[in-house]
C-alpha cells in the first residue's frame, strides 16, 4: 500500500512538467486523482489512461482555463458534485513571464496575477469548503524561489509568487482549526519547459550560484509535494519548503 492509498487529490497543470510528475507519483502511492489541464489532447488522454492502468487507480481528466473564473468554477464544482472527499489539492499550474519593470504593462501584470494568484485563490476557496466539512485536508501551492529572492526582470512573476506565499501562510492560520494544512513548495530552476524560458546565459548563471551546480528534476519537486500531502507531514503547516539545490 502506498502512503496515499484511499486519498483523493486534485492536481492542476497536470499535463506537463512538474504536474505530470505529480500525477505519476501520487498514482504510484495509491491516490485517486482529478487531473486538471487547460485543454484536452490525445497525448494527455493517453498519459492519464496509461497511469490509471499501470497503478490501478482512478485518474480523471478535468478541463478549465485558469484565466477564466467561470471555467474554474464549473470545473471545480464538477468535482465537488461527485460528493467524494477531496483530501489533497495541489495548485501547480501557472505561467512564467520575464520583463523589466518599465517594459511590464499593467495588462500583462494583471494576466500573470490572474493565473498565478487569483485563480489559485478561487480554487482554494472552492475546495477548502469540502475540506472544512470533513475536518481534514492538505493544500500545497507551487510557489517559486522567484517569490522569495528578488531579481531584476521578474516583477510580474516574482510578485505573483510572493503573493501566493503570503496567502499560503495566511490560509494556514485560518484553516488550522478545521484540520486543514496549507503549505507551499518553492522550486528552484527545474528541468521543465517553464524552467527553460530563460536564456542559456541566465540558466548558466543560476546553476553556477546553486550549491548542487545543477537544475532540479521534476521528480525531486514531486517528492517534496508528496511529503507535504501525506500524513508524514501531519504536524506541518504554514511552511514554504524551498527545493532549489541551495540557491
Total number of helices: 7
Q: In total, how many beta strands?
A: 7
* Highest CATH level, the class: Alpha Beta
Estimate nothing, just give the exact number of structural domains. Answer: 1
Largest sheet: 7 strands, parallel
Round the mean pLDDT to the nearest integer and report it. Answer: 95
Strand order of the largest sheet: 3-2-1-4-5-6-7
Q: Which ranges are low-confidence, i.e. pLDDT below 50, for 5 or more consecutive residues?
A: none
Q: What is CATH's topology name? A: Rossmann fold
**What structural class results from the helix and strand content?**
alpha/beta
What would you give as the CATH superfamily?
Answer: NAD(P)-binding Rossmann-like Domain
- Cα Rg: 17 Å
What is the helical fraction, as a range of percent? Answer: 40-55%
What's the CATH architecture name?
Answer: 3-Layer(aba) Sandwich
